[in-house]
Amino acid sequence: MSATSMGQGGAVGHQLSWATPLPAELVACATDALLGRSANFSVWSGVDRRAWPAASDPELGVVRMMNRVGIAALAAVSGSMLAFGVAGAQQPDLSNGFRSPSGNMTCVVADKGAVCEIGDHSYAAPAKPSNCYQAYGDRIVLFQGDPARFTCHGDTIRDSSLPILDYGRSFRSGEVFCESETSGMKCANTRTGHWFSLAREGYQLG
User: Fold this and answer.
1) How crowded is the C-beta side of 143, counted as CA atoms within 13 Å?
2) What gap in Å lies between CA 142 and CA 178, rounded to an integer?
3) In which element (H, E) is residue 180 found?
4) Eight-state DSSP code of residue 139
5) How much is the pLDDT for 172?
6) 153 in helix, strand or coil?
7) CA 24 centroid distance within chain
8) Which positions ≥6 away from 171 have C-beta within 8 Å?
9) DSSP tag of 138
10) What local confidence, expressed as pLDDT, does residue 40 receive?
11) Does residue 78 share a domain with residue 126?
12) Number of domains forming the structure of the chain
C-alpha cells in the first residue's frame, strides 16, 4: 500500500510506500502530534529525504506519520483489549453455588446432588408435612439417585455474593447439572434421569 501526495492543481507527487522504514525521531514527532502534545517539527529538517520523501513537507509528513503511528497504536491497543477480553471471558467459580440472573434463586451442585432455593414465588407451595415445623415449599433437592422433592429446612442457602449463572449456560459436577433458562432453573441427574425445574411462577418434579 502506498500514499500519494497531491501538489497544486491535483498533480501527483512522490509515492510513499507503507513499507518505508519509520525514522524514530519522526515517529516521536507524529506520536506527540497524535496525542495532542507539543510536537518537535524541527526533526523533519534533518531527515534523509531519499529515505523519507515526505520530510520535504513537514505538514504532510506528520499527517502521514500520524496515520501510520495511529494504525500501529490501534493494533496494539486492540490486541491488548482482545487479550483482556479472552481472559475476562473465563467463567467464575460456581462450585460453591450460584444464583439465577434475577438473583431470586440460589443453587448448589455437587457430584451426587443438587439443591435450589427460591426467594419470591407466586406458585402454590405443596402442603407442608406434619413433621415439618420450619420452612417448606421454596427448596428442592435432588440427591443420591432419588427423585426430586421439596425439603423442610431451617436455614437458607441464598447468598447475594455468589456468582451468576447466565441464561443459556449450565454448570455440571459429576452426573448432575443445572441449566439456567429464562423459564427457570432446570437440574437433572444424567444417570438416573431424575430432574426438577423451579421458577417464580411454578415448579416441576421428575
Assistant:
1) 9
2) 11
3) strand 176-181
4) E
5) 93
6) strand
7) 37
8) 94, 98, 109, 165, 177, 178
9) S
10) 62
11) no
12) 2
Average pLDDT, the chain: 74
- 55: domain range? 2-88
Q: Is the pLDDT of residue 30 over 80?
A: no
DSSP 121: -
pLDDT at 87 over 50: no
3-state secondary structure of 86: helix
pTM of the model: 0.57
HSE toward the beta carbon, residue 29, CA cutoff 13 A: 22
178: enclosing H helix or E strand: strand 176-181
111 plus 197 within the same structural domain: yes
Q: Residue 107: which region, alpha, beta or left (left: phi > 0; alpha: psi -120 to 50)?
A: beta
* Alpha-carbon gap, residue 162 to 109, rounded angstroms: 13
What grid cell was written down for 106? 440460589
Question: CA-CA distance, 55 to 46, in Å (whole number)?
Answer: 8
pLDDT at residue number 3? 40
Same domain, yes or no: 84 and 113: no
- Which of 58, 88, 118 terminates a domain? The answer is 88
Give Dmax (Cα) for the chain: 98
Q: Is the pLDDT of residue 76 over 80?
A: no
Give the up-direction half-sphere exposure of residue 87: CA atoms within 13 A in the CB hemisphere. 6
Contact (Cβ atoms closer than 8 angstroms) between residue 112 and residue 146: no
- Examine residue 93 and state whether it is found in any structural domain, yes or no: no
